[in-house]
């Protein structure tokens, strides 16, 4: 049984290194070479068919026309003048609606080279996870809670041990609230029930704020490393 001969359409001049003319002798068929030709030769030997190659008459890849027809290499396939097309043809949804593509064996994209940006040291980078307004609110909350703790202990003084030199001054109250916010504890033994309830709520608030700050700081440092200067 004779092998089937397939007509293959291609383009010349735009296809290096996929399809190139290797021999062009007057009066003889042109001979072609290139990566796509090597693939076609391998398929021909494996599947047992012959092929002949011709160039698309209008030397175009193929695009839809106003009347719904196709020109170029795709048009040769649509009108069944060719059995297969050999080309570095971009796969698009419109073309996939009228012809079948093999699995692509090369992806091509355009990139832009940039000079790496110079690294600058920001002394206040640790403040970046929160806005300035939020930092101001936190500072105001520390002062307010410190004042409330002082007032609660002034209205109901705690019982201190004999000989204790610790005093519940406004300064000590502020320092105790700030120390508990940064998870360093405090030095003033507040034993009244109202103060303990106040500090219990404050510790919960501090835990939520510190956890949010830690998560946002990690995300901020990661995004800073991978973000591009061109959008």
TrEMBL record:
Tell me the PANTHER family matching this sequence: IONOTROPIC GLUTAMATE RECEPTOR
Q: What is the lineage of its organism?
A: Eukaryota, Metazoa, Chordata, Craniata, Vertebrata
Q: Which residues form the Ionotropic glutamate receptor C-terminal domain?
A: 5-229
What protein am I looking at?
Glutamate receptor
Keyword Transport: yes or no?
A: yes
Molecular function in Gene Ontology? ligand-gated monoatomic ion channel activity; signaling receptor activity
Query: Any idea where the Ionotropic glutamate receptor L-glutamate and glycine-binding domain is?
Result: 17-79
Where does the record place the site Crucial to convey clamshell closure to channel opening? 230
* InterPro entries named in the record: Glu/Gly-bd, Iono_Glu_rcpt_met, Ionotropic_Glu_rcpt, Iontro_rcpt_C
Instruction: Indicate which residues the UniProt annotation says bind L-glutamate.
Output: 90, 95
Record keywords: Transferase included? no
Entries under SUPFAM superfamilies matching the protein: Periplasmic binding protein-like II (SSF53850)
Give the membrane topology, semicolon-separated if more than one: Multi-pass membrane protein
The record's GO CC annotations read: postsynaptic membrane
Q: Which family does it belong to?
A: Belongs to the glutamate-gated ion channel (TC 1.A.10.1) family.
What organism does the UniProt record list as the source?
A: Mandrillus leucophaeus (Drill)
Q: Which residue spans traverse the membrane? A: 132-152, 201-223
State the protein's purpose.
Receptor for glutamate that functions as a ligand-gated ion channel in the central nervous system and plays an important role in excitatory synaptic transmission. L-glutamate acts as an excitatory neurotransmitter at many synapses in the central nervous system.
Where is the protein localized? Answer: Cell membrane; Postsynaptic cell membrane
Keyword list (alphabetical) reads: Cell membrane, Glycoprotein, Ion channel, Ion transport, Ligand-gated ion channel, Membrane, Postsynaptic cell membrane, Receptor, Synapse, Transmembrane, Transmembrane helix, Transport
